[in-house]
C-alpha cells in the first residue's frame, strides 16, 4: 500500500506528522513518500503542484493531505497560489465524490451552537459532487448584455450543467454508502426552479430503482438548509451537487462545533482518493504545537476504509479517538473547564497509546 504524504502549509506538517505516527502504530506495512505541495512547493520548486508531486499522487493508492495556503501568497497570480494545488489534484485524479461526515462526539456536544439535545449522537454524511456544476460549467465570462432590460450593460455569467453519467456515478456512491449506514439518502436539489436540478432529481430517482433497500427522499436546498439546523438527526446520507454541497457541508460542519475534528475524503472511480481535514492551514496558530490533529487522524482512518481496504484498522483508529476524548484530553480548540489541555504531539501520542 503506497501512500503519498503531502503536508503543505501552516499547521499541515504538524497535524500530518501525527496522522503518520498513528498509521505507523498499526501492524500494517505501508510505503509512505512525502512531497511538497501548496506554498511550501512554490517556495521549493516555483509551483504549488510540481510535476513530481502530481506523479507521486497519481501512482499512490491514496493521498494523505494536510492543508495549503497562507495570506502571504495572496498577491501571487492565481495559477501560482497554493489553493491551485488542491484544485489541480481534484481534476488530475478525477476526484468526483467528496465525503464529509459530521459526527458529534458525546464529550463535545457543548461545543455546538445548537442545543445539546439537537446534536447529541449526530452522525450524518454529506456527499458532494466535486467536479461538475456551475463551478466548472462552460461558457462563463463577462460581456456586454445582449438582451433583456439591461441590454448593453456589463454583465457576468456562469453555466450550471450536469451530464447523466456524472449524476449516476455520484448517486451510486451515495446509495452504496447509505447501505452501510442508516439506509436513507436525502437528495438535495432545486428542481422547482432549475432545469439542471430537475434532471438531477430524475436521474437520482432512476438510479434508486437498483437500491430498493435504501429509502430515498428529495428535498429543496433551501429547506435542507433549514432542516439541518432544526432537526439535523433526521438525516443520514445527503447527496447533492457541487455548489449546494459546498455550502451545506460547511453548515453541517458547524453543527458539531469543532472544525478541528472533521475529516474528509475525495474519491475517484477506482476508489483512490485524497484524504484531508475539513479545515485549512490555520496560519494564526501554525508552529505553536497547539493545532488539533484529530481531523487529520480521522482522515487517515477514512483512507484505510475507502482506499486501502482496511476497515478494521479504521475502526481501531476511530475508537482510539473516542477513547482519548473520554479520557478528557483536549486541544485548545475543543477545551472546556474540567478537561485536560494538551498540545498537538501529546494528542497524537495519546491516540497511539489508545
Ligand atoms: P482555517 O480552517 O485554516 O482556520 C479557521 C479557524 O479555525 C482559525 O482560527 C484556525 O486557527 C482554526 N483551526 C483550523 N484548524 C484547526 C485545528 N486543526 N486545530 C485548532 N484550530 C483550528 O480557515 P481560514 O482561516 O479561512 O484559512 C486559512 C488558510 O487556509 C487560507 O490560506 C485558506 O485559503 C486555506 N484553506 C485551505 C484549505 C485546504 O487546504 N483544503 C481549506 C480551507 C482553507
Ligand atoms: Mg467551502
UniProtKB/TrEMBL annotation:
Residue positions binding substrate: 90, 100, 128, 222
Cofactor names: Mn(2+); Mg(2+)
EC number: 1.1.1.85
Binding-site residues, Mg(2+): 222, 246, 250
Molecular function terms, GO-annotated: 3-isopropylmalate dehydrogenase activity
Catalytic function, reaction form: (2R,3S)-3-isopropylmalate + NAD(+) = 4-methyl-2-oxopentanoate + CO2 + NADH
Classification via InterPro entries: IsoCit/isopropylmalate_DH_CS (IPR019818), IsoPropMal-DH-like_dom (IPR024084), Isopropylmalate_DH (IPR004429)
Binding site for NAD(+): 280-292
Record's keyword terms, sorted: Amino-acid biosynthesis, Branched-chain amino acid biosynthesis, Cytoplasm, Leucine biosynthesis, Magnesium, Manganese, Metal-binding, NAD, Oxidoreductase
Site positions for Important for catalysis: 135, 190
Subcellular location: Cytoplasm
Annotated function: Catalyzes the oxidation of 3-carboxy-2-hydroxy-4-methylpentanoate (3-isopropylmalate) to 3-carboxy-4-methyl-2-oxopentanoate. The product decarboxylates to 4-methyl-2 oxopentanoate.
Family affiliation: Belongs to the isocitrate and isopropylmalate dehydrogenases family. LeuB type 1 subfamily.
Summary of subunit composition and partner proteins: Homodimer.
Record-given protein name: 3-isopropylmalate dehydrogenase
Species, as recorded: Caldimonas aquatica
Amino acid at each position: 500500500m503506497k501512500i503519498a504524504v503531502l503536508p503543505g502549509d501552516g499547521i499541515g506538517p504538524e497535524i500530518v506528522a501525527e496522522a503518520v505516527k498513528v498509521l505507523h502504530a498499526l501492524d500494517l506495512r505501508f510505503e509512505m513518500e512525502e512531497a511538497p505541495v501548496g506554498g511550501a512547493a512554490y517556495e521549493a520548486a516555483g509551483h504549488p503542484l510540481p510535476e513530481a508531486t502530481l506523479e507521486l499522487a497519481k501512482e499512490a493508492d491514496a493521498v494523505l493531505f494536510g492543508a495549503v495556503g497562507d495570506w502571504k501568497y495572496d498577491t501571487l497570480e492565481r495559477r501560482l497560489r497554493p489553493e491551485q494545488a488542491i484544485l489541480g489534484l481534484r481534476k488530475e485524479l478525477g476526484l468526483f465524490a467528496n465525503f464529509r461526515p459530521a459526527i458529534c462526539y458525546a464529550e463535545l456536544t457543548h461545543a455546538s451552537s445548537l442545543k445539546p439535545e439537537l446534536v447529541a449522537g449526530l452522525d450524518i454524511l454529506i456527499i458532494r459532487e466535486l467536479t461538475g456544476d456551475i463551478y466548472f460549467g462552460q461558457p462563463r465570462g463577462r460581456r456586454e448584455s445582449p438582451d433583456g432590460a439591461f441590454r448593453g450593460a456589463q454583465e457576468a455569467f456562469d453555466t450550471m450543467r450536469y451530464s447523466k453519467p456524472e449524476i449516476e456515478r455520484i448517486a451510486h456512491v451515495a446509495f452504496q454508502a447509505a447501505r452501510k449506514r442508516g439506509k436513507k439518502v436525502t437528495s438535495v436539489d432545486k428542481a422547482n426552479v432549475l432545469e439542471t436540478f430537475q434532471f438531477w432529481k430524475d436521474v437520482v430517482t432512476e438510479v434508486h430503482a437498483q437500491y430498493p433497500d435504501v429509502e430515498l427522499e428529495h428535498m429543496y436546498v433551501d429547506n435542507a438548509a433549514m432542516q439541518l439546523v432544526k432537526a439535523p438527526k433526521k438525516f443520514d446520507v445527503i447527496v447533492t451537487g457541487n455548489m449546494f454541497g459546498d455550502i451545506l457541508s460547511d453548515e453541517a460542519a458547524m453543527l458539531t462545533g469543532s472544525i478541528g475534528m472533521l475529516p474528509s475524503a475525495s474519491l475517484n472511480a477506482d476508489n483512490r482518493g485524497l484524504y484531508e481535514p475539513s479545515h485549512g492551514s490555520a496560519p494564526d496558530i501554525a508552529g505553536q504545537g497547539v493545532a488539533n490533529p484529530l481531523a487529520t487522524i480521522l482522515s487517515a482512518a477514512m483512507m484505510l476504509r475507502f482506499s486501502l481496504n482496511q476497515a478494521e484498522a479504521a475502526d481501531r483508529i476511530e475508537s482510539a479517538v473516542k477513547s482519548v476524548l473520554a479520557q478528557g484530553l483536549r486541544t485548545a480548540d475543543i477545551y472546556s473547564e474540567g478537561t485536560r489541555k494538551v498540545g498537538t504531539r501529546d494528542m497524537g501520542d495519546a491516540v497511539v497509546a489508545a
